Amino acid sequence: MDSVPLSTMLNINSETGDIVSLQSFNYEELNTFQFKVQATDSGVPPLRSNVTVNVLILDENDNNPTILTPYSEHGSVNSESIPYSAEAGYFVAKIRAVDADSGYNALLLYHLSEPKGNNLFRIGTSSGEIRTKRRMSDNDLKTHPLVVLVSDNGEPSLSATVSIDVVVVESTADIQTQFRHVPTKEESFSDLNLYLLIAIVSVSVIFLLSLISLIAVKCHRTDGSFSRYSAPMITTHPDGSWSYSKSTQQYDMCFSSDTVKSDVVVFPGPFPPVDGELISINGGDTFTRTQTLPNKDKDKRNKPGFVAFA
């Protein structure tokens, strides 16, 4: 409505106030619109008044029913199969249709037409389901041409038709064969994708776990190597003292400035090993390290954290 000028749709008589449409309206495209009308008198000064006019478009039955897929109404013949052993009420097919009109005009009814004397099928007038009315007999035809008429409730009523050939087969296996092959192929393809996905995920998880385990073992060995092979360290201080440290243990030793040579024995507490560490320090800030103590000092090693000077 906004894109179409009102003057192309309506005309108002300036003297009588009659409003006349200049074109036809389609309910499916435009079902309501409004406009304003102003009335002015001839007095001095002129007086005026405004009014809003709402226009409602009524639906007209101008659309035929449309048959929905998988059936076609354009002269083609559709085919359905039923077994010879089908009982009364056996489902044959369902016809679906729509109408673009609204309200009562869009209400559809289904009617079935079949050869005279057949009287084998029936259709739901509102559902469009085709079912058998009785069991088959040897006198019945092998192919039953049916015509379904779909009509609306408009005035005048509009309709559409679809043709279906119902073929009688000996057993249900003949019916299921044409539907069984395609779904099985799709399921096999789906299962193959599932197995492939599971295999890829499993290999990825195993590889990731192996990589994490390898990194953890390597880091553990590296930490153990550092802790196992940490060497002792002796640090000199300006006041003539020495500090001896190994791993997390540290010992401070003080010497006089005139010390020429000293033997220092360091035992890590609380339980000293059988073989201690003998470190000899001279005035030139050099030292020698011996792992085994003389027998005369073994009685002194039994004290935790003992430091001996010679």
TrEMBL record:
Pfam families: Cadherin, Cadherin_C_2
GO CC term, one of those recorded: plasma membrane
The entry's keywords: Calcium, Cell adhesion, Cell membrane, Glycoprotein, Membrane, Repeat, Signal, Transmembrane, Transmembrane helix
Domain Cadherin as annotated: residue spans: 9-67, 81-179
TM region positions: 194-217
Compartments, as annotated in UniProt: Cell membrane
Family matches, as CDD domains: Cadherin_repeat
Keyword Manganese: no
Domain of life, per lineage: Eukaryota
Protein name: Cadherin domain-containing protein
Organism: Dissostichus mawsoni (Antarctic cod)
Biological classification of the source: Eukaryota, Metazoa, Chordata, Craniata, Vertebrata
